[in-house]
């Protein structure tokens, strides 16, 4: 742990110990990048979790946001609390929001200044959301920003005045979650969206593919909730008729916003012949792994529509005639020798 991380941890924990308050036994350090909201850092919040964090990654206090994803059961009464935003190594006036984990990321609760000063804080500027009752069992996302940036639906922010946001450290404390999801068997495969041949007509058309082509097929792998396409390990990509074909030619080093949602997508090119499409195929499948930690990546899979062009009959007749002529010449030569 770095000196800076140790200091943030001490500032988060020592005041609670001195006051005899045990907020959360589980301590998890912030992991960047954890924004935009689709990149929310997963937390195990059952029994409570404390997260020493920092707003202003790389010194940019005006654009850095922090998002965290946790699981709760329906009826759980959740507290989301900031400690030591004011009074840490660098003061930051925090803003909190809770979102649902749908594609819309609807804002469910919001707070700028806490109603009072609780243990672990020295100022009401440490935001706090009390008594959030989880409406259903599933995942929720907490957003942390700095004043004057207020959260809106979708995890975006708007400035409520012209003041300049400042960078600083804080400790996020989430309590009230009763259980984590029960996992059995292999980890789930993330279902993602892909577009075969993007920028050709409409995204929903079945675009033609000549399976005998010696060229490549462009495929856009689309970023979405809980999936950053730019974190894909391109060495794991397979694509084709079944999704297991080793057909990757290359991926663009720079992301492209294919679907105009403001989030970068990954554009890759796959060898057509190696994709091994069959005449009856109506879709293509891509598989791979993604995640910020190379040692703990998640499998993903996506399918996209296409139309495999039939081989023209005259093409086959041409080959049949050519093969017949070859056979006749061979027969004549054999007959002359005997």
Question: What's this model, at a glance?
Answer:
This protein is mainly beta and 338 residues long.
Structural class: mainly beta
* CATH level 1 class label of the largest domain: Mainly Beta
* Fraction of helical residues: 10-25%
CA-CA gap between termini = 88 Å
Radius of gyration: 28 Å
Helix-strand string: HEEEEEEEEEEEEEEEEEEHEEH
The count of DSSP E runs of length 2 or more, i.e. the number of strands, is 20
Determine the number of helices (DSSP H or I, runs of at least 4 residues).
Answer: 3
For the largest beta-sheet, the strand count, sense and barrel status come to: 8 strands, mixed
Mean pLDDT: 85
| Low-pLDDT regions | 1-22, 334-338
In the CATH hierarchy, the architecture of the largest domain is Sandwich
Question: Into which percentage range does the β-strand content fall?
Answer: 35-45%
Q: Number of folding domains?
A: 2
At CATH level 3, the topology of the largest domain is: Jelly Rolls
Shape: elongated
What does this structure look like?
With about 350 residues, this protein is mostly beta strands. The protein folds into 2 domains: about 5-175, Jelly Rolls (Sandwich), CATH 2.60.120; about 190-315, Sandwich (Immunoglobulin-like), CATH 2.60.40. The chain is about 15% helix and about 35% strand. It has helices spanning about 5-20, 270-275, 315-335; strands spanning about 25, 40, 50-55, 65-70, 75-85, 95-100, 105-110, 130-135, 140-145, 150, 155-160, 170-175, 190-195, 205-210, 215-220, 230-240, 250, 265-270, 285-290, 300-310. The strands form 4 sheets. Strands 13, 14, 15, 16, 17, 18, 19 and 20 form an 8-stranded mixed β-sheet that branches. A 5-stranded mixed β-sheet has the order 1-3-12-5-8, with helices on one face. A hairpin with a 7-residue loop joins β19 (about 285-290) and β20. It is elongated and about 75 Å long. The termini are far apart. Mean pLDDT is about 85; it is low at about 1-20 and about 335-338.
């Amino acid at each position: 742990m770095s000196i800076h991380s140790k200091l943030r941890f001490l500032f988060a924990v020592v005041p609670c110990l001195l006051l005899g308050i045990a907020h959360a036994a589980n301590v998890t350090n912030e992991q960047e990048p954890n924004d935009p909201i689709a990149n929310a850092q997963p937390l195990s919040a059952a029994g409570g979790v404390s997260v020493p964090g920092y707003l202003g990654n790389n010194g940019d206090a005006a654009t850095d946001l922090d998002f965290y994803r946790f699981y709760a059961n329906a009826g759980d009464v959740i507290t989301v609390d900031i400690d030591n935003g004011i009074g840490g190594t660098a003061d930051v006036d925090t803003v909190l929001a809770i979102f649902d984990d749908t594609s819309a990321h609807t804002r469910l609760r919001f707070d700028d200044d806490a109603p009072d000063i609780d243990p672990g804080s020295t100022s009401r500027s440490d935001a706090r959301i009390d008594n959030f009752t989880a409406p259903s069992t599933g995942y929720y996302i907490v957003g942390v920003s700095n004043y004057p940036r207020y959260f809106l639906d979708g995890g975006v922010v708007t400035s409520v005045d012209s003041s300049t946001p400042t960078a600083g450290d804080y400790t996020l404390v989430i309590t009230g979650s009763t259980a984590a999801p029960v996992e059995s068997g292999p980890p789930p495969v993330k279902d993602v969206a892909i577009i075969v041949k993007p920028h050709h007509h409409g995204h929903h058309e079945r675009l033609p593919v000549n399976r005998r082509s010696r060229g490549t097929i462009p495929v856009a792998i689309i970023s979405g909730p809980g999936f950053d396409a730019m974190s894909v390990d391109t060495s794991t990509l397979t694509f084709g008729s079944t999704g297991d074909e080793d057909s990757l030619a290359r991926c663009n080093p720079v992301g492209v916003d294919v679907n105009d949602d403001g989030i970068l997508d990954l554009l890759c090119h796959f060898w057509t012949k190696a994709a091994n499409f069959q005449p009856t195929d109506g879709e293509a499948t891509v598989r791979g792994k993604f995640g910020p930690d190379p040692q703990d990546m998640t499998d993903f899979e996506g399918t996209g529509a296409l139309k495999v062009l039939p081989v023209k009959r005259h093409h086959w007749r041409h080959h049949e005639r050519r093969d017949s002529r070859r056979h006749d010449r061979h027969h004549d030569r054999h007959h002359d020798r005997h």
